[in-house]
Design brief:
136 residues, mainly alpha, 0% strand, elongated
Amino acid sequence: MISPLRKALLSGAVVTVSSVLASVAATFIWLQMDPEIDHASIYISCIILPWLVAPACSRFILRTQMKSGRLAQENHRFANSDELTGLPNRRAFFAAAQVLRARAVAGKGVFACAIADIDIFKRVNDAFGHDAGGAV
């Protein structure tokens, strides 16, 4: 899997190259309509200006992709772990069990699973509230 930094740098390079190509294409069309313009200086401008502007755009894209990656990791952590203990929760258990089951089926193996709820927090939560259950 591509790292977020590498992905962002690649996106920045694509933005830079695309902006140069778009600028050259637009300039070429413009020069076809107005042949009195100095061709060399216009082509130099349409190549240099995107190289000056694109890094700022690339920096914005890099920062946005890095922030998006961090938020995705944080969302995954919140969705798959218990807030108090940090241990995997029910959702994480079933996702891992599904992977193990798929491996067993693919390998013509046997899959067996047992679940035991060994705490009594439902009773504690029902009797004293979820804050009390969290404290316990």
